[in-house]
């Protein structure tokens, strides 16, 4: 889900249901019926986008991702 709070700033949330057999299904959680939440923020300025997200990654703890996009 994406919430645009103001031009150039967005909050993002997500939910992944486990037990579906896909990526992240019960990775070390011990409870294959539970789901996992993820969250992130996005900034846009001068034709550039900056995104950060954090999501659970099973036994490896949390995955944190940072990406930069530039439009030419």
Describe the protein in words.
This protein is 0% helix and 60% strand. The chain is elongated. It starts with a strand and ends with a strand. The chain has one domain. The chain has a five-stranded antiparallel β-sheet with strand order 1-2-3-4-5, with no helix packed on it. The protein has no helices and five strands. A hairpin with a 2-residue loop joins strand 1 (2-6) and strand 2 (9-17). With 72 residues, it is mostly beta strands.
Cα distance spanning the termini: 27 Å
How many distinct beta strands? 5
Strand order of the largest sheet: 1-2-3-4-5
Would you tell me the overall average pLDDT? 79
| N-to-C series of helices and strands | EEEEE
Helical amount: under 10%
Any idea how many domains?
1
Largest sheet: 5 strands, antiparallel
Structural class of the helix and strand makeup? mainly beta
The percent range for strand residues is over 45%
Shape assignment: elongated
How many DSSP H or I helices? 0
Give the low-confidence spans. Answer: 20-31
As a whole number of angstroms, the C-alpha radius of gyration is 15 Å
